[in-house]
Amino acid sequence: MNIHDDLDIFFIGLDAVEITVCGEDRTFIAYKNTDMDSVSLGRAMTLNPDQPTMTCKDVDGAGLDQESQVIMEGKTYDVLDFTTDGTGLGELELMLAQEEE
Q1: For strand 89-96 and strand 53-57, is the pairing parallel, antiparallel, or unpaired?
Q2: 12-43 residues labelled b (16+ CB within 10 A) or e (exposed)
Q3: Residue 26: in which H helix or E strand, if any?
Q4: Taking a C-beta distance cutoff of 8 angstroms, is the pair 54, 40 a contact?
Q5: What pTM was computed for the model?
Q6: Residue 48 phi, psi (nearest 5)
Q7: Quick one: CATH architecture of 3-36+47-96?
């Protein structure tokens, strides 16, 4: 068993959602670092539901870049960034894709 197999256990029971990579036959599980509801924390900070941050296994996020799109909970998101932390996990920053007219 390698570290990536162990991380599968980590995602069980978390607020994990399935992510589908557009244009690829690939899905993976990630959990929400930020609540998807808009929240204001005083005047200084607002958490935007249109820009969620997710945590996933680094092997699942590998290859995602700013030209990638993913589908989560029926909505399409542009990938803003994917960074790994050296522990086998990575942080995926998303932004709700603009609908083309």
Answers
A1: antiparallel
A2: eeeebeebebeeeeeebbbeeeeebeeeeeee
A3: strand 26-32
A4: no
A5: 0.78
A6: -100, 120
A7: Beta Barrel (2.40)
**45 has pLDDT over 70:** no
Q: What is the pLDDT of residue 16?
A: 85
Domain limits, the chain: 3-36+47-96
Alpha carbon of residue 37 to chain centroid: 15
Q: In this predicted model, what pLDDT tens digit does every residue of 15-38 receive, in sequence order?
A: 789 999 999 999 999 988 865 555
Angle CA 35–78–19, to nearest 5:
60
Mean pLDDT of 94-99: 90
Structure token pair of residue 41 = 């924390």
